[in-house]
Design brief:
The complex is a heterodimer. Chain A is built from 12 helices and no strands. By secondary structure, chain A is mainly α. Chain A has one domain (4-269). Chain A is globular. The two termini of chain A are 31 Å apart. Chain B is α/β, with parallel strands linked by helices. Classes of the chains: A mainly alpha, B alpha/beta. The A-B interface holds A 7, 11, 14-15, 18, 21-22, 96-98, 100-101, 103-108, 117, 267-270 and B 27-28, 71, 74, 77-81, 83, 95, 98-100, 102-103, 105, 107, 109, 112-114, 116, 118-119, 123, 126-127, 130-132. Chain A: This is ABC-2 type transport system permease protein.
């Protein structure tokens, strides 16, 4: 008997592969939508640039340092959005009954929902995030040590994993809450926007919330403080800057449990 | 497309493909009963159903809207878990072995497609092939057969969303059969189809059943489907099995009547005859109802002996009427 993880990845790849092929059948359309995605997400950063045309420091961070925050969270979010961006369609699938058809196939439901309508155009956001991150790394005046070099890619990957967990948990929530895609969006898109700015400009309670409740601070804030050599507004011990992998693993495990519980609930209530 | 040949000994054991024992499904329904108050009521959508279906049978599963037909199908496929009772399909428990069972059953929902809406049929089938791990030779043979019999050739490159209802239904049926399922569930497979499409779908199902020995369970509102396909009918209402038997037996249960239409030489008052009652008079023509099980011969003889009979015909009861009468009795109860 093959393992569930193997089956999930296989199913995901099968469906994604098919969507990519079908997208590529209309190459011009793909290039245009990807460019559109790139431009739309790029406007976010223009906002920050405009802000810094009037100020030189925001919450103790320079433009290049804010760009570092922006680049890490955008790339992380972009990866999660590319992989699992279709999760917010789950609510609609439950309402119109098309989730049932996924349960009829010999494949894990989560992989089928996640891979549905895989949109390669979302590469636009990742490209834009990486470009800003590259610029930030060159201009933020980082005092490079081997630990800091390692911490940058680790931050991006763990951040992506945490966002993925939020996407899955948000999907699971929709099993109970009819259409909760807006709640999910407030955490994912809202969180992404928040993480583009230094933690010091937000109220302490909010920073605590995204540290301990929805652990978005581990996406980039805490490791970024270490990379940039900035003080932590919450005064947490230094090791939490390296806790992102553990937090990411925990989030994914919890999201997986929530998904199972949600699906079980669906199969017993049918709505 | 060959029927797997099993030895006689195993045949006896695996003969029953669908097995339900006291299956129940209870839903909690919450509805508003004021600005804050919510009333919670329990709805017994399926209320203790038991039946078995042997391999190779075509069974019609009929009942009015909301009778519990779709809920039953959802439990048989593993979409919904039963609240009580026991289900075995091909020896598997749909609740626990959903994905293993999925490889052995095919499902067609008339109201919604199981195909990928934005993809051409061919891509959908290819995905089905890989998802179900169908080996190449078998896939090629099954696809070729479906394409030929369901006339899908010109449709293979068309995205599912552009297909007409009848075309989509044929596409869905083909998709459900590519992996050689042992059981095929059809939930209203002919709903909304024109006469030609209906005939084509029925012919195809009959052929699949005959050639592959596929067990078929179908729900429908179209009683012609039942008359043309099913040797056995189950009628469900209010979550309970009201009837389980052959089509003919429905008449006995429903107290149905046949009608003798008699043309007399002249206008007569309503005739009075033992074993029949006059239900309608129109000039010299009269309609005499008599029990469906009774023979028409003695009645005809009696009428001819006492009245100036010119011509006659006997009308069989429509199943619609029989079932309507069963539902009617049931509706009075609620």
């Amino acid at each position: 008997m093959r393992s569930g993880a193997y089956e999930s990845v296989r199913t995901y790849r099968l469906i994604v592969g098919m969507w990519v092929r079908s997208t590529m059948a209309y190459r011009t359309s793909f290039v245009l939508t990807a460019l559109g995605n790139l431009a739309a997400t790029g406007l976010d950063f223009v906002t920050i640039l405009l802000m810094f045309s009037h100020i030189t420091v925001l919450g103790g961070f320079t433009l290049a340092q804010v760009a570092f925050l922006y680049g890490t969270t955008s790339t992380s979010f972009g990866i999660a959005d590319l992989l699992l961006g279709s999760m917010d369609r789950l609510g609609r699938r439950i309402r119109d009954g098309t989730l049932d058809t996924l349960l009829l196939r010999p494949a894990p439901v989560l992989a089928q929902v996640a891979a549905d309508r895989f949109a390669l155009r979302r590469l636009g956001r990742i490209t834009q995030g990486l470009a800003v991150l590259g610029w930030a790394l060159a201009h933020a005046g980082i005092d490079w040590t081997p630990v800091r070099v390692l911490l940058v890619p680790l931050t991006v990957l763990c951040g992506a994993a945490i966002f993925c967990a939020v996407f899955v948990a948000g999907g699971a929530f929709q099993f109970w809450a009819g259409d909760a895609s807006e709640v999910q969006n407030s955490v994912t898109y809202g969180g992404n926007t928040m993480l583009q700015y230094p933690p010091a400009i937000f109220a302490r309670e909010l920073v605590r919330g995204v540290t301990f409740v929805v652990p978005l601070a581990f996406v980039n804030w805490l490791p970024a403080l270490r990379v940039l050599g900035e003080p932590d507004p919450l005064g947490l011990p230094g090791w939490v800057d390296f806790a992102s992998p553990a937090v990411a693993a925990l989030c994914c495990a919890l999201a997986g449990l929530a998904w199972r519980a949600g699906l079980r609930s669906y199969r017993s209530t049918g709505s | 497309m060959t029927v797997p040949v099993s030895e006689a000994a195993t045949e006896a054991v695996t003969d029953t493909v669908i097995e339900l024992d006291g299956v129940e499904k209870v839903f909690d329904v919450r509805r508003k009963a004021g600005p804050l108050r919510r009333l919670r009521t329990q709805v017994r959508a399926v209320d203790g159903i038991s039946f078995t279906v042997p391999r190779g049978e075509i069974v019609g599963y009929i009942g009015p809207n909301g009778a519990g037909k779709s809920t039953t199908i959802k439990m048989l496929t593993g979409i919904l878990n039963p609240s009580g009772g026991r289900i075995r399909i091909c020896g598997l428990d749909p609740t626990r072995d959903r994905t293993r069972l999925a490889r052995r059953i095919g499902v067609v929902f008339g109201q919604r497609t199981t195909l990928w809406w934005d993809l051409p049929l061919r891509d959908s089938y290819e995905l089905v092939r890989r998802m179900y791990r169908i080996d190449d030779a078998r896939y090629a043979a099954n696809l070729a057969a479906c394409v030929e019999l369901l006339d899908l050739g010109p449709l293979l490159e068309v995205p599912v969303r552009q297909l007409s209802l009848g075309q989509r239904m044929r596409g869905d049926i083909a998709a459900a059969l590519l992996h050689d399922p042992e059981v095929l569930y059809l939930d209203e497979p002919t709903i909304g189809l024109d006469v030609i499409s209906k005939t084509r779908v029925r012919d195809f199902l009959r052929r699949v059943n005959a050639e592959r020995g596929t067990t078929v369970l179908l729900t429908t509102h179209d009683l012609t489907d039942i008359e043309q396909l099913c040797r056995r009918v189950m009628v469900i209402d209010h979550g309970r099995l009201m009837y389980d038997g052959d089509l003919g037996g429905l008449h006995a249960v429903g107290d149905s009547e046949r009608t003798l239409v008699a043309d007399f030489a002249r206008e007569l008052p309503p005739v009075e005859i033992e074993g029949a009652r006059c239900v309608k008079v129109d000039g010299p023509r009269q309609w005499l109802a008599f029990p469906a099980q009774a023979s028409a011969a003695p009645l005809v003889a009696a009428v001819a002996a006492h009245y100036p009979l010119v011509d006659l015909s006997v009308r069989e009861p429509a199943i619609e009427d029989v079932i309507a009468r069963m539902y009617g009795e049931d509706a009075d109860r609620t």
